[in-house]
Design goal:
The chain is 41% helix and 13% strand. The chain is of the alpha/beta class and 420 residues long. The chain has 2 domains: 223 residues, Glycogen Phosphorylase B (Rossmann fold, 3-Layer(aba) Sandwich), CATH 3.40.50.2000; 180 residues, Glycogen Phosphorylase B (Rossmann fold, 3-Layer(aba) Sandwich), CATH 3.40.50.2000. The structure holds uridine-5'-diphosphate (UDP). It comes from Glycine max (Soybean).
Length: 420
């Protein structure tokens, strides 16, 4: 095969779970727009992770998608834990990724000159209450906030995923660049210095799921599930006291917690908008939807960024998925956090103890009384007012950081130089 030496060919490896693929594709789109057509991108995911991305409008011709196997053996019935899928994918990983590269090279006739791969930042220790003060800037974090797969690394419960996470510590310093989906202005300075001393090049390119400043809210009649017009109506009646509840795309809270959330929303009397997957509606207490139909709205999917930007939302009850938290930070809404797994714990701790823009639920799980207490704290009490003020300050920091004077624009330029 004749391989052209002129074009640059970037292979992009996706972590094909949850909302990981979207920010990575957005980074590639930004790179594609900032560079010439002389750069070819091969976006390598699974059929399942690529499918929703292909419907994105205005995908440039120099981004091509390739699907490799998800590693789930034929006929295998998956259990409920999302990590099972991850481990199966990782088992098939090395062979799969080579296949992805082979496919991309065969079709484009360009050898790969650069690899961009999704990765995780992590650290390890054993006692769950130990503060992470051995990492500069993370003294407020505890070992228990780390993803369980990081804590389990080296233990009997070690999985392929936890081994992979542990090995990242030694691999990342070899990367030409480590790029984070975050703003340097929001991270503790000592953490940034420490990471920069350990990595060849550490770049912060801002929130990749959002174009900032956010566009004005669309007219509410274009909103298929009626969330925005419902919020318009609530604003007139209740001001900014709607609780918006969502647990993202992956988490399925246990049935007793769904019931606790429903009971708390009903008992608190605050208006609420709940994005709840269709199949979980059956778990709601009998008569809940009818009894709360005046005060509440339950939908299978909400236009989340717009909802958070609607002035009537006073609190966001969240699982602390990073995209949800980022979308929220751009809109200045205080949070009630119920972290489930992965990076949720660290994010929840940042929200409560570092940025002071929210509160984690007592005991780490939803109970009726615990959630009512949190909702009142944020929406009624003095402490909640301070959280709102802090949330507005964070919003301003984010909007400034995303502007032309912010560091993300400079770091993105550096990334473009290396990739090209
Ligand atoms: N989302 C949404 N509407 C919903 C629920 C979720 O638009 O009703 C979006 C949300 O805006 C976010 C993403 O789904 O961009 C969830 O990502 P996150 O990182 O918060 O959680 P994950 O799904 O990865 O657990």
């Amino acid at each position: 095969m004749k391989i052209s030496q002129e074009k640059k060919h970037v292979a992009v490896f996706v972590f094909p779970f949850g909302s990981h693929p979207v920010p990575l594709l957005n980074l590639v789109l930004k790179l594609a727009h900032a560079t010439t057509n002389n750069l070819q991108f091969s976006f390598i995911g699974t059929e399942h992770s690529n499918k929703p991305l292909l419907s994105k409008p205005h995908l440039p011709d120099n981004i091509k998608f390739y699907s490799v196997s998800d590693g789930v053996p034929e006929g295998h019935v998956l259990g409920n834990h999302p990590i099972e899928r991850v481990n199966l994918f990782l088992e098939a990983g090395p062979e799969n990724l080579q296949k992805g590269i082979d496919m991309a090279v065969a079709e484009t006739k360009e050898r790969v000159t650069c690899i961009i791969a999704d990765a995780f930042k992590c650290a390890n220790n054993s006692d769950t209450n130990t503060p992470l003060d051995f990492i500069p800037g993370l003294s407020k974090m505890r070992v228990e906030d780390l993803p369980e797969d990081v804590i389990n690394s080296g233990s009997e419960e070690e999985t392929l995923f936890s081994k992979t996470l542990a090995s990242l510590g030694s691999v990342l310093p070899q990367a030409e660049e480590v790029v984070v989906n975050f703003f340097v202005e929001l991270d503790p300075t000592s953490l940034v210095h420490d990471m920069r001393s350990k990595l060849k090049c550490f770049l912060y390119v801002g929130f990749l799921t959002l174009s900032l400043p956010l566009p004005p809210l669309p007219p509410s009649d274009t909103d298929a599930t009626g969330c925005l017009s419902w919020l318009d109506h609530k604003k007139k009646k209740n001001g900014g006291s709607v609780a918006y509840v969502s647990f993202g795309t992956v988490v399925t809270p246990p049935p007793h917690e769904i019931v606790a959330v429903a009971e708390a929303l009903e008992a608190s009397g605050f208006p609420f908008l709940w994005s709840l997957k269709e199949h979980l509606k059956d778990l709601l207490p009998r008569g809940f939807l009818e009894r709360t139909s005046e005060n509440g709205k339950v939908v299978a999917w909400a236009p989340q960024t717009e909802v958070l930007g609607h002035g009537s939302v006073g609190v966001f009850v969240t699982h602390c998925g990073c995209n949800s938290v980022f979308e929220n930070m751009c809109n200045g809404v205080p949070m009630v956090c119920r972290p489930f797994f992965g990076d949720h714990g660290l994010t929840g701790r940042m929200v409560e103890d570092v940025w002071e823009i929210g509160v984690r639920v007592e005991g780490g799980v939803f109970t009726k009384d615990g959630l009512v207490k949190c909702l009142r704290l944020v929406l009624v009490e003095e402490k909640g007012k301070r959280m709102k003020e802090n949330a507005l300050k964070v919003k301003k920091t984010v909007l400034d950081a995303a502007g032309p004077q912010g560091k993300a624009a400079q770091d993105f330029k550096t990334l473009v130089e290396v990739v090209t």
